[in-house]
Design a protein that fits this description.
The chain has 259 residues and is α/β, with parallel strands linked by helices. The protein contains seven helices and eleven strands. β1 and β2 form a beta hairpin. α1 runs parallel beside α2 and α2 packs parallel to α3. The mean pLDDT is 95.
């Protein structure tokens, strides 16, 4: 069974196809997965693998590990473009998320003031005031919207909460407007005998309507790049992603494509 990607709280730097040279921060356990989605395509595997035994890293530990890594990188004149919160689950589920973000801004300003801070979030906790405050502080507030059609969102992202809906999440993302980047994974395939496809004309029309309502700083379109826990999913070709991007650009919305 495919399992977690990251066994450290601070990892990398690695090359991100969307963000550049990225130092990662994993606010999930080092030996398990904690997430409010259970996406078919998650590179860290399904939630069924469990949360492990290590627990969430304390705020003080995150600070210590991040300062050590940034200090070492600075001493060796290593390049860095971005500090990215991602990892083995949803970073905004950490109870000290706001405090960790404020710590990270202080450390960034001390060691690499030119570097951006990015958060990759699945948008499930935007209704929490502390989470919303933290996301407004970062340079790249990257919020997930894989489908604007309820049944497709549930099939692909499989939210843990039954009360999470596309209508709710679009409204919550729209509250950020130009302070967010919307990230959409396009894919097709099959899972448990059901077809999976968020690239149909109806799906793209619904996404464009949602993007118009949100009015984000940018849309990131991408497709599968690594092994997925649901095995019968297929990558959408780069040229098809570009065709979808052109439709979105005609609405006056900036789009970045990662093939």
């Amino acid at each position: 069974m495919q399992t977690i990607l990251f066994h450290d709280t601070v990892f990398g730097p690695i090359h991100s196809r969307r963000l550049g040279t990225s130092l990662g921060v994993n606010l999930s356990p080092r030996d398990g997965k904690v997430c409010s989605f259970d996406c078919l395509y998650c590179e860290a595997g399904f939630n069924a693998q469990g949360p492990g035994k290590a627990g969430l890293p304390p705020r003080e530990e995150v600070y210590r590990l991040l300062e050590k890594r940034l200090s070492d990188m600075k001493a060796h004149n290593e390049r860095l473009d971005v500090i990215t919160f991602s990892g083995n689950g949803e970073p905004t589920m950490h109870p000290d998320f706001l405090g960790i973000i404020t710590d990270t801004i202080a450390l960034r300003d001390k060691y690499y003031p030119e570097v951006k801070i990015s958060v990759l979030s699945n948008s499930t906790r935007l209704d929490r005031p502390d989470v919303a405050e933290a996301l407004r502080l970062v340079d790249n507030n990257i919020l997930k919207l894989d489908s604007a059609i309820e049944s497709t969102m549930r099939a692909i992202d499989r939210p843990v909460s039954p009360s999470f809906t596309t209508e709710k999440v679009i409204d919550m993302i729209a509250d950020f407007g130009g302070q967010c980047i919307v990230q959409t994974m396009l894919l097709r395939g099959e899972y448990n005998g059901s077809a999976i496809d968020n690239t149909t004309p109806a799906e793209i029309d619904a996404l464009i309507a949602a993007y118009r309502k949100i009015n984000p700083k940018e849309v990131m379109l991408y497709s599968i790049d690594r092994k997925t826990p649901a095995e019968n999913l297929r990558k959408v070709p780069r040229e098809e992603l570009e065709a979808v991007a052109e439709r979105i650009r005609r609405e006056g919305i900036d789009v970045q494509v990662s093939g």
